[in-house]
Every structure is written in structure tokens, then in C-alpha cells.
Amino acid sequence: MQALTTRVKPVDRRPLTFVERLYIPSILKGMMITFKHIFKKKATVNYPEEKRPFSPVFRGLHILNRDEEGRERCTACGLCAVACPAEAITMEAAERKPGEENLYREEKYAARYEINMLRCIFCGFCEEACPKDAIYLTETFAPAHYERKGFIYGKPDLLIPDPKEKQTV
Predict the structure, then answer these.
(1) 114 annotated as ligand-binding
(2) Which of 68, 106, 122, 144 could form a disulfide with 75 if both were Cys (CB 3.0 to 4.6 A apart)?
(3) Is 88 a known ligand-binding residue?
(4) Which residue range(s) make up the domain with 68?
(5) Share of the chain above pLDDT 90, in %
(6) Number of domains, the chain
(7) Is 1's pLDDT higher than 60?
(8) CATH at 99
């Protein structure tokens, strides 16, 4: 077996010259670095006015989709909750009432659907696991809140508006 050898650089212990003791070359080197950075493009973005370009694979806030007829796509299968590694999705399934079954495609629906954005790691596994394409990650940031409950998005917050209903502005 070969012994490990380290490369040791010898330390220069000679006394400093008069110019080196004045530290003028070192100060000038530092000033040159500073002046180079003054003329470079700034990394700061004035956020609300300017938007920073994002990667095409950026994953932001979640939304629950509707189909062409305005019905909820989510059938409460629970695959998104199972696929979530952070366990950020909570779902409760319920059966449709006898009169509603012919209005909707599926017998089950999500009575309660919540995503805890403080736990979510925006991995996109919920989007990949959904067989009905009901959940998507958009290109929108999660807004800031002052309390924890503001980060827990329920079904009304996640569901996109029904295109058939009249929008009041």
C-alpha cells in the first residue's frame, strides 16, 4: 500500500520590504477589484416592477383543474397524497349523492383537499401521479403570509374558476 503524501508549501518567512510594509500594493490590488465590480451589471432585480427570468421547468403554486364542461377533474383517488414525499397534501373522499351521479363522471369527489405550502417542496410528484391531470404546478410564486394558516390552501383556493359561471368583477 502506498503512503499518502501531502504537498506542503513552504512558508515565506523573510522580512517585509519597506514598500510591502506600507501595504500600498495590497491596497491598490483591492481598489482595482472594487472598481472592476462597480461597472459590472447589478444582480439585484427590482421585483414587482421587473420579473426575473425563470427556468422552463420552474414549479410554483398548485391549481386544481376542471374539464371542458366545468366539472372538477379530481376523483379523490389519493395518488397525489401518496406520491408527496413531504406529506403536504391532505384529502378526504366522499361519495356523490344519488341525484348528482349522472351530472358528474365519477362517483367519488374530494370533499376536503388541502395543501400545506410550508411543507411542500415543489417536487412535482403530485402532478406526475395524478391520472386525471387534475393538479398542476403553475409558474406563480407562493405569496407571503404572516400566519401559518395562510399557507394552507384549501380546495376553494386551489380550484380554478368555473368558465361557465359568470365572473363578477
Answers:
(1) no
(2) 106
(3) no
(4) 62-158
(5) 44
(6) 1
(7) no
(8) 3.30.70.3270
Q: Please check whether residue 145 lies inside any domain of the structure.
A: yes
Residue 81 inside a domain? The answer is: yes
- Residue 112 assigned ligand-binding role: no
79 is in an annotated binding site: no
Q: Rounded to whole angstroms, what are the CA distances from 27 to 19, 24, 69, 81, 132?
A: 12, 5, 71, 59, 65
Closest CA to 65 of 124, 157, 120, 133: 133
All cell numbers assigned to 108 = 367519488
Asked if residue 77 belongs to a known ligand binding site, the reply is yes
- Does 80 count as an annotated binding residue? yes
Please check whether residue 7 lies inside any domain of the structure: no
pLDDT above 60 for 169: no
Threshold 0.85, pTM exceeds = no
43-88 pLDDT per residue, tens:
888 887 888 888 888 899 999 998 888 888 898 999 999 999 999 9
| Residue 116 annotated as part of some ligand binding site | no
121 marked among binding-site residues: no
